[in-house]
Amino acid sequence: MYRPTVRYSDVYKSYVDDLFQSTHLDRNQIIRAALFTAAHSSVFLKLMNENKRPDVLLPSPQWQLDQPELWMESNPTIKEERRDVSDVDDKRTGEIESINDFDRRYTTRSDKKQKEEESDRRQRKSSGRIREVRKGGGIRIQIG
């Protein structure tokens, strides 16, 4: 378990104390929650991109937003997910122009499922033409 000593302004201390008083979370959970969500926050990533070294990509988080045990518990057991080495996100390359660009790109799983359903509906509504997007890649369009 990593136990850093964090030094920050009294403004942050006051805010964390206020959150502590208004929630059922302890101060450590509040700070872990902030770190947990920062990696998926467009504002944080934009700030990091503005201050990153030019020859280095920002790292991707090793967790997803659907893993609350990471910030709720002090020493959770997490199964690591293996990723392809060529899996590079745009968020690491500094190409985020606005908050909305990032938020559209990184949606929750339920949002993705909803978008797939909307796409299926649009394909069925098209009059006289069939457009098929294949999962393995490629597009087939049949008109008439």
What general outline do the C-alpha atoms trace? elongated
Global Rg: 21 Å
Q: Please give the alpha-carbon distance between the first and last residues.
A: 63 Å
Give the beta-strand count.
Answer: 2
Strand order of the main beta sheet, please?
1-2
How many H/I helices?
6
Parts with pLDDT < 50 across at least 5 consecutive residues: 98-108
Helix fraction by DSSP (H/I, runs of at least 4): 40-55%
Q: What characterizes the major β-sheet?
A: 2 strands, antiparallel
SS strand fraction: 5-15%
Any idea how many domains? Answer: 2
Structural class per helix/strand content?
mainly alpha
Order of helices and strands: HHHHHHEE
Mean pLDDT: 75
Could you name the key traits of this structure?
mainly alpha; 2 domains; 2 strands; elongated
What's the gist of this structure?
The protein has 6 helices and 2 strands; from the N terminus they run ααααααββ.
Write a structural description.
There is one protein chain. The chain is mainly alpha-helical and 144 residues long. The protein has two domains: 10-106, no CATH class; 116-144, no CATH class. Helix content is 44%, strand content 7%. A two-stranded antiparallel sheet has the order 1-2. The protein is elongated, with a radius of gyration of 21 Å. It starts with 9 loop residues before the first helix and ends with a strand. The model is unreliable at 98-108 (pLDDT under 50). Residues 78-121 have a biased composition (Basic and acidic residues). Residues 68-144 are annotated as: Disordered.
